[in-house]
Amino acid sequence: MEKVKSLVLIGTKLFVFSFLWTCVLVGAHQVEAKKVTALRIGKGEAKVNFLAGSVQVIPEGEKQWHPLKVKDALRGGDEVSTGPNARLELVLPDNSYVRFADHTHFKISQVNYAEESKPKNVRIHVVIGRTWANVSGAFRENSSFAMSCENAVAGVRGTIYRMNVNEDKSALVRVYDGTVSVTGGGKAIEPPKKIGPPEKIAGPKRIPGPTKVSMEEWTFIIKAMQQIVIRGDGTPEKPRDFTEAEDRDEWVDWNRLRDSQIRQQ
Questions:
Q1: Which residue, 107, 228, 230, is CA-closest to 169?
Q2: What are the backbone dihedrals phi and psi of residue 33, each rounded to the nearest 5 degrees, phi first?
Q3: Are 98 and 120 in contact (CB under 8 A)?
Q4: Residues 6+ apart with CB under 8 A from 24
Q5: What is the dihedral of CA 19, 22, 23, 28, to 10 degrees?
Q6: CATH of 42-264, one of 2.40.100.10, 2.60.120.1440, 3.50.50.60, 3.40.50.150
Q7: In sequence order, what are the residues at sequence separation of 6 or more whose Cβ sits closer than 8 angstroms to the Cβ of residue 85?
Q8: Is the distance from CB of 222 to CB of 182 less than 8 angstroms?
Q9: From CA 7, how far away is CA 226, in angstroms rounded?
Q10: Domains of the chain, residue spans
Q11: d(CA 160, CA 180)
C-alpha cells in the first residue's frame, strides 16, 4: 500500500512539474514573439520580423553577401536571396507584412515613408520565387505598394495577395482580399543567369531596377479569390476565379496562420 501511495505521489509531482514547465515554455515563446513583432522601424526601412533557414543580403553599395538576421533592416537597393527551406517575413513602418519562401531572389527597390502627411511608396522587384503580401489599410489613395517581376507589376492599396515568379519568367498573382491592379508591357528585365542560394552565385551581380511598363499594353483589376497568370512571353491569360481547395499548400497555410496571428495582436 505504501508503495502504491509513493508511486501516486511521484506521478503527481511529475505531472505538476510537466505542467509548470509547459507554462514556462509557452510564456517564454509568447514573450519572444512580442520581442520579434514589436520592432522599432525607421521610416525608410523594412525590418526582418521572422527568419528561418539561410537568407543572404547584399546591401546597397556593397559587393559581398552577408547573412541576414532577425531585427536587421532592409532599405532601398538591398538585394536578398533565400536558401533551401528558408522563410523570411518583413514588416514595414505601417505594419504591412511581406513574406518570401525558399529559393526566392528579390530586390527592395524603394521603401519611402518620409513623413506621415506624404505618400508612402513601396517597390519590391522579384526575380524568382514565391511572395505573400498583407498590405495595411493605412495606404491612402495617393500612396502605393507594388511587387514587380520581369513581365508585370502588381500594385495594391490595403489587400492580401501573393505572387509566384517562375524560372521561365511566367508569374501567378492570386488575390485573397481587396483588389490588385496587374499591369504588363514594356522592355523586359534580364534576370541573373544563375538564381539560387547565395553561395552558389558566382560573382553576384546587381539586379537592375524594374523598368517602366507601358500602360497601353494591358491592365487587369483582380478581385478577391481571383487570379491571373502571366506567360513567360509577357502575355496574360484571362483572369479567373480560384477555389480554396486548389490553392491549399504548406506555403499558403503558413501565411494564413501568420496573418491570423497578426490580427490577434
A1: 230
A2: -60, -40
A3: no
A4: none
A5: 160
A6: 2.60.120.1440
A7: 52, 53, 102
A8: yes
A9: 61
A10: 1-38, 42-264
A11: 9
Q: What is the DSSP string of 177-224?
A: ESEEEEEE-SSPP---S--SSGGG-SS--PPPPPPPPPTTTEEEEEET
Q: Would you state the torsion angle of the CA atoms of residues 69, 172, 246, 53, taken in this order, to the nearest 10 degrees?
A: -20
Q: Count the Cβ atoms, other than its own, within 10 Å of residue 232.
A: 13
If pLDDT is split at 50, 70 and 90, which confidence band does 263 have? confident
Q: Which residue has the cell 529559393?
A: 103
| Cell matching residue 40 | 522599432
Residues in Cβ contact with 153 at an 8 Å cutoff, skipping those fewer than 6 apart: 146, 147, 182, 183, 184, 210, 213
The tens digit of pLDDT for each residue in 102-149 reads 999 999 999 888 666 577 889 999 999 999 999 987 666 668 899 999
Structure confidence at residue 15 as a pLDDT band (50, 70, 90): very low
Name the residue among 130, 99, 111, 124 with its Cα closest to residue 195.
130
Instruction: Using alpha carbons, select from 196, 193, 162 the residue that is nearest to residue 65.
Output: 196
The pLDDT, as a whole number, for residue 39 is 44
Helix, strand, coil proportions of the chain in percent (round to 5)?
20, 35, 45
